[in-house]
Amino acid sequence: MSVLKKIFFLSLFVLAVSLLFWGVYNLSFKNNSATTAKKTDADTAQNATPADEVGKITAVSKETVLAPVLSSDKNSIDYLSKKTGQLFQIDFYGNVQKTLSFENISDPLDAAWSVDRSKIIVKTDDAKTPFSFYDLAAKTSAPLKSNLDQVSWQINANRILYKYYDAETKTRTLNVSDPDGKNWTKLSDIPYKNLSVAQIPRTGLISFWNSGDAYLPANFQSMPVVGGDIATLDTKNFGADYLWDNSGQWALVSHTDAKGGTKMELGLMNSRGGEYKNLEIPTFITKCVWSNDGKIVFYALPGGIPDNSVLPNDYKDGKFQTTDTFWKVDIATGKKTRVVEVGSIKGQYDASQLFLNQGESLLFFVNKLDGKIYKLAL
Question: If you average pLDDT over every residue of the chain, what do you get?
Answer without folding.
Answer: 89
